[in-house]
Each structure stands twice: as C-alpha cells, then as structure tokens.
Design a protein that fits this description.
single chain, 180 residues, alpha+beta, Arc Repressor Mutant, subunit A, 2 domains, three-stranded antiparallel β-sheet, 8 helices, elongated
Length: 180
C-alpha cells in the first residue's frame, strides 16, 4: 500500500488519534482554527481531499502554489482568477451559504466585460461628452479587488478601445469620449 506523505505546518499538536481500518487511515489533529470562514468552507465541501485542503489553504493565505497545483485547482474549479491573483471559486464558496464569503467572492470576481462596456455606453449617452477621468471614476471602483490600479486602468482602456472599434463611441481631443 502506498500512502502519500504530507507535511503539514500548523500549530496542531501531535496526533491524538491515529487508526488504520478498512484500508483507511484516520488521524485526528487538535489545533487552533485560524480562520472560521475557511473552516466553514472545509466543512461544507466534504468531497475535498487532504491534498486539496492543504493547497486551498495556501490559496486563502495568499501563499505561492506550484504550476501543477494551479492547474489541478483550476481543472477542478476550486479557484478562479489569474496567477498570482487567484481566489476560491464559487463552487467552493456557495455550499457555505455564508454572506461574508459570498461578498468577498463577488468583490474578487467582479462582473463580465460586457457589463462594464454597457455601463460606459449608458454613462456616455446620459452625460454626453465625457472625460476619461469621469469614466475611470465610474468603472475602476467596480473592478475586481484582485487587480492592481495599473491593471484596472488598462482594463478601462481596453473597454474604451473595444467600444470605439465596435463603433459605439468615439474619442475626442483632450481625452474625451462621446456616442457615435
């Protein structure tokens, strides 16, 4: 029998119970719960294996994970986002029915690009000639919390470029935009 070895670095004490029966090993570690929300995630996702839990613990603690771990977690839909800014997925968060965790997920996930493009078009229609600065003030606070300020500005630039190329808005001198 080949049982994988795991190194767990926690504040846990030496195993209190270690049993082997029916081809399964049961180990009980007594330790301190450092994050109640993460404990709820684990309780509400009984399909998670020990290796999954250890790797997800790294994600929620924003520790670096290997490329193999990233691919595995992404394939199993345990995480979302782009490296290095990844976060726990809806699949993992939803079973907890925890409003705080769901709010954090939505804050990280944000909305799809089309939502922001529609928001920009609506704003420019109602406002008329609009400055880039005003569009930034509208969109940037609503973008994913995992993005840097530079990434958020680039995303707005990409939204504006896409809308211009689709012929919905046009740029004017002085960093202004208006409806075509």
């Amino acid at each position: 029998m080949n049982i994988p070895a795991y190194t767990i670095s926690t504040r846990a004490t030496i195993p209190q119970v270690c049993e082997y029966s029916n081809g399964k090993v049961k180990v009980v570690l007594t330790g301190k719960i450092l994050d109640d929300n993460f404990a709820k995630i684990l309780i509400n996702n009984p399909e998670l294996h020990l290796e999954d839990i250890i790797t997800l613990d790294k994600v929620q603690k924003t520790k670096e994970i290997t490329e193999g771990e990233f691919i595995y977690l992404r394939k199993n839909k345990f995480i979302e986002g782009r490296k290095p800014k990844i976060y726990l997925s809806y699949k993992v968060i939803k079973p907890t029915e925890n409003e705080e965790l769901m709010a954090e997920y939505v804050k990280n996930k944000s909305f799809d690009d089309e939502y922001f493009k529609k928001l920009i078009v609506e704003y420019v229609k109602k406002q008329g000639k609009t400055s880039r600065k005003a569009i930034d003030k509208l969109i940037i606070p609503k973008l994913s919390a995992v993005l840097t300020e530079e990434q958020k500005k680039n995303k707005v630039t990409n939204f504006l470029s896409a809308l211009r190329m689709r012929g919905e808005i046009k740029s004017l001198p002085g960093f202004f935009w208006e409806i075509v």
